[in-house]
Amino acid sequence: MNPLKDIFRLIFPSQCAICRTPLGHGITDICLTCRLDLPLTYFWKKADNPVSLKFWGHIPIETGSAYFYYMASGRWRSIIHNFKYRKGWRYAQMLGEWYGAELRDSGNYSDIDVIIPIPLHPIKRIKRGYNQSDWIAKGIAKELGVEVDYNSVTRKTNNTSQTKLSYTERWVNVDDIFTVRNPSRLMGKHILLIDDVLTTGATIISCGESISKQVKGCKFSVAVLGIAGDYHALPPKDSEHTKEDSGVVNRV
Ligand SMILES: [Zn+2]
How far is the centre of ligand 1, averaged over its atoms, from the C-alpha of 95 (Å)? Predict the structure, then answer.
């Protein structure tokens, strides 16, 4: 107990970062009403779900999930937007922790060896000051008790933003933009790839393909915070990795 701190709080109560309601004692950042308003997907409870499906046929995928539906409107949109543009790393980590607790309790993420956030190009990272996916990964890692590897995979091309590109342009824009620095470090590992919002999945697939090309025997799971409401399932580019050999069908 710190009486001075309590008096300060009484005069200047902390506010919910979303709705600006004064927060009660012991509650930080987000009020309970806003937290309950987060439109959760519950995909992590079932390995066979729309996010997992998106990666079948592209990379050797075990399971995938999104924490919540990223809506065009709604109170949570501004927080996610702020991840990139207003130094919102703190909320990225907070949501990562909430999500990580769900992933841990589901039992579907118990054999992850290493967590890799989808890297930004170094120039973009310097401009922004941080990679929001690093902070999401940090929050998830805390709950799963798994190491985050920030260095083994790098983005070698500073591609343009995917947001205003067409479906086909998104694929071309991210083709062969990642490389692995130290392939032996990841050999045979089950890698959990982390990103903020999933749309076509092209960037994550490109990253997974680059790792698969350079690292023997690795497999992937994917955890994104938000899944965009307007996403489309991509047709498989090849038949190398099928639904049957992904292992997903055999899991709960
Ligand atoms: Zn609130």
Answer: 14
